[in-house]
Amino acid sequence: MKSTRTIAIVNQKGGSGKTTTAVNLASSLVDLNKKVLLIDMDPQGSASLWIGLKEGGKKLFEVMTSSKDLNSAIISTKQKGLDIVASSPILSGLEKALANEVAPETILRGKLEEFTNNHYEYILIDCPPTLGVLSLNALSAAKEVIVPVEAHVMALHGLVQLMKTINLVRERLNPKLVISGILPCRVDFRTKHSKEVLAQLKSRFEKQIYKSVIRENVKLAEAPLHLKPISKYDKDCHGAKDYKMLAKELCES
């Protein structure tokens, strides 16, 4: 088996498609017979709720603040091959809880390095829409970054700042961190604006942008209400096809 690919899914802008990408990419990879662990680092716990966990408990918080290992926080999901480390609102207090720790932004990396029961081919980390200690832990622990970007002109401005942050993390915390790809999301090919933003992304980030594009799709918005990834909610819709294509592109990279 190849070594595990640990990928942080990050963008400091809300509504960019982070959780949608984390959940549906994880599920699509499992559909390709990959074993996947999804770590929900967002205190809002949207990924955990989407997969059907109404209460994530304190397990991830305990892992980050004590000697407990990551295995103790892993929960199996309804989809065989997909496990999750769930989030809960208590994670929002992590920065305060780690105030006296040395290098608090590297705790998750240490936990993953100690991870003895690791049969996963992919570990996906869903980050919160802020660049605090939780996101820094994810970026410090990951080997790769996927950046979902909404096809909107304002999202381009935030992307430039995010790229600077990723470069800073690479310099100071994690020299092995690479950008796996920039993922255009909520692309509506019926509008001139979406097409123009996509063209700008391809022009400015030619070598880093995925060929896969996530189209605007109402089914993607409905799927969390039914507590199912898009491939289980409607496998024939644009959203399911787009994330399947992304999973294949990721596996081939």
Can you put this structure into words, describing what you see?
The chain has 253 residues and is of the alpha/beta class. It has a single domain (5-182), classed as P-loop containing nucleotide triphosphate hydrolases (Rossmann fold, 3-Layer(aba) Sandwich). 41% of the residues lie in helices and 15% in strands. It has eleven helices and seven strands. It has helices at 18-31, 46-50, 59-65, 94-97, 107-113, 133-141, 153-172, 192-204, 218-222, 230-233, 238-252, and strands spanning 5-9, 36-40, 74-76, 82-85, 122-126, 144-150, 178-185. It has a seven-stranded mixed beta sheet with strand order 3-4-2-5-1-6-7, sandwiched between helices. It is globular, with a radius of gyration of 17 Å. It starts with a strand and ends with a helix. The model has no long low-confidence stretch (mean pLDDT 90).
Low-confidence stretches: none
Number of domains: 1
Secondary-structure element string: EHEHHEEHHEHEHEHHHH
Structural class: alpha/beta
Largest sheet: 7 strands, mixed
Distance between the termini: 16 Å
Mean pLDDT rating: 90
Task: Determine the strand fraction and express it as a percent band.
Answer: 5-15%
Cα shape = globular
Number of helices: 11
> If you compute it from the alpha carbons, what radius of gyration comes out, rounded to the nearest whole angstrom?
17 Å
State the total count of DSSP E strands. Answer: 7
CATH hierarchy class name:
Alpha Beta
CATH architecture: 3-Layer(aba) Sandwich
CATH topology-level fold name:
Rossmann fold
What portion of residues is helical? 40-55%
What's the CATH superfamily, by name? Answer: P-loop containing nucleotide triphosphate hydrolases
Strand order of the largest sheet: 3-4-2-5-1-6-7
